[in-house]
Design a protein that fits this description.
Length: 424
């Protein structure tokens, strides 16, 4: 059954998630389409229009309800990440050249790699990282007040997560500006279309290759002269009796940068914009920052949902959401829809930092692929908003955020912002 079988007229035209044109619609229209799909009895099959399969992938069923997305996330033996969780799936040659990303792994292979990485995030390392995040957030806001850069994205939203991850990994300062540029290039290739341009696979491949090269060189150096950083810990870690290879480390580093930097920068940017558009929520947060910041971070992530979707491949027959799925079929886990599910969230379109409970799926739906960096993202958002909101400064959004068309992430390209003057 296709979307046109279940939705008629103009609604069908504006609910075709496989059509690149859908992802260029204003976000409220897309959210309205998700709401209509949640009302249907069973998940809908979407087939890419002729000529778009290269960027839209294969036909897929859209899981739009909170319960269905969570069930699929927590049933990895049925809904597999391999051969690829993004669209289109990574080519075999790319996996052979760059290594397989954790997001595309399943079973024992994924568990072994995730376990060894998780063990490197020791309490001592996390405590030191939290202190570093606080210092870095303070320095970035100091610079914003002094320099008035105009665009919040490169001055703070992007810089904070990039600097945190590079500090954590031990990336030398001289490599960081080029890495930041490569992250932008790689991220531009994710999604069906951005600002009217189709993806250019070569550019994304070159960016990944550069990041892998930086990491391979650093891995060799840390094997010879280990330091107190994550790279040193990972190359000396015990995975089946061996440390991570340079290729495995490079694949992890690429994921950490593109996923960790992009998702956090977008959550921060959406948070600033949401608090500006809802001054009563901003003032409530200012009134008792420590009391409300935890709920504010979770609500920002729910409301903005930085990652829109991931894909899964059905491995065995399974009944879910009113349909029996068969081996080989593709499903899309639509987090952006699940986080607005009326069956779970009262007034889901409302931005409310006191929302409780808030079982959003902004970090995934649980299971083995739940976001490894969720704790780090919360620390970064808390530190930066503390600096932005508890100083005696005035934050002004001077224009609308520049949103970027994508079927993968809710990306903010630019955010005009000014700070100051200091209130006396």
């Amino acid at each position: 059954m296709t979307v046109t079988d279940q939705v008629s007229g103009d609604r069908a035209a504006h609910s075709d998630l496989a059509d690149p044109a859908f992802w260029r619609l204003p976000r409220p229209e897309r959210l309205a389409a998700f709401a209509r799909l949640r009302e249907l009895e069973a998940p809908v099959l979407f087939t890419p229009p002729p000529g778009t399969a290269r960027t839209s992938g294969k036909p897929f069923y859209a899981l739009v309800r909170h319960a269905d997305v969570m069930t699929a996330s927590r049933t990895p033996k049925v809904f597999a990440s391999a051969p690829g969780a993004t669209t289109p799936e990574p080519a075999g040659w790319a996996k052979a050249l760059f290594g397989n990303s954790m997001v595309n792994m399943d079973g024992a292979e994924h568990a072994a790699l995730r376990r060894i990485i998780s063990r490197r995030f020791t309490p001592r390392l996390l405590a030191a990282t939290e202190e570093n995040i606080g210092r870095l957030a303070g320095r970035l806001v100091d610079e914003m007040i002094a320099e008035q850069p105009g665009d919040f994205m490169p001055s703070a939203a992007s810089r904070l997560p990039l600097e945190v991850i590079c500090d954590l990994m031990g990336i030398p300062a001289e490599h960081r500006p080029r890495i930041a540029a490569q992250i932008d290039h790689a991220s531009e290739q994710v999604g069906v279309e951005r600002r009217g341009r189709l993806r250019i696979p070569g550019r994304g491949t070159a960016s990944l290759a550069m990041m892998q090269l930086v990491m391979a060189r650093l891995a060799r150096e840390r094997r010879r002269r280990p330091q107190d950083d994550l790279v040193s810990a990972l190359v000396r870690a015990d995975v089946d009796g061996e440390g991570l290879s340079s290729r495995e480390l490079g694949a992890f580093f690429s994921l950490l940068l593109v996923a960790g930097v992009e998702t956090t920068r977008n959550a921060i940017a959406h948070g600033v914009s949401l608090l500006d558009r809802h001054p009563e929520q901003r003032e409530l947060l200012r009134s008792d920052f420590d009391r409300y910041i935890g709920g504010a971070v979770e609500e920002i992530v729910r409301h903005s949902t930085p990652i829109i979707q991931f894909r899964r491949t059905v491995v065995s027959e399974f009944e879910l959401g009113g349909r029996t799925f068969l081996p080989g079929e593709k499903v899309a886990l639509l987090y952006a829809s699940a986080n607005r599910d009326e069956a779970v969230f009262t007034r889901p379109d409302l931005f409310d930092i006191t929302r409780s409970p808030n079982p959003h799926l902004g970090y995934g739906g649980g299971g083995p692929h739940h976001c490894l960096g969720a704790h780090l993202a919360r620390l970064e958002m808390t530190a930066l908003f503390r600096e932005l909101l508890t100083r005696r400064t005035v934050i002004r959004r001077t224009g609308e955020p520049g949103l970027v068309d994508s079927n993968f992430d809710n990306r903010v390209g630019s955010l005009p912002l000014s700070m100051g003057p200091t209130v006396t």
